[in-house]
Amino acid sequence: MMSLLPSTNAVDTEQHGDPRVVGVDDEQLDDVLDAISSDTARTLLSEIYSDSGTPSELSDRTNFSLQNISYHLDNLEDSGLIRVAGTRYSEKGREMNIYAPAEEPVVVFVGTQERKSGFLDLLKRVFGAVVALVAATAYVFVETFGYSAGPPGSGGAPSGGLLDLPFIAFLVGGLFVLLLVVLWGAWTRIR
User: In terms of residue numbers, what domain contains 90?
Assistant: First the structure.
């Protein structure tokens, strides 16, 4: 693979925005569905969500032709599923776009406008609750048990770090309780 020199533009691959909910009656839906209608486009989208890259890097990772990749990248970008996050220069001095996931995840939704708004509110609350749960779990394990995010033997955790079985078990238990709360809320609304 060709060695790339970083440009002065920073590559921002973090996702920041709230989910973009596209309803079946939205004009944007056709663009989104057309952009992901082929196996090639879905493979590229998965690759970009795994690790952002230039068209030539994506070609190397997927074994698709550069021409085919460029076509699908244009469609994915036009539909708002990916974005240009920065640029790099090749050894030959060519400026190349670096493609990354869109800043906001896209959710296709079937239902009325009222239900769409309710779904988006629920999605935001659940996402916030999951982030809070992960942060609280990490805090409890660091403060209570002396765990750290470092690798085993780095002087932090008694048995290796935050990705040990007790931490994961506690987190999964918390996620299970959160799921039960969400399901209970949905069930009480339906009744």
Answer: 4-17+26-108
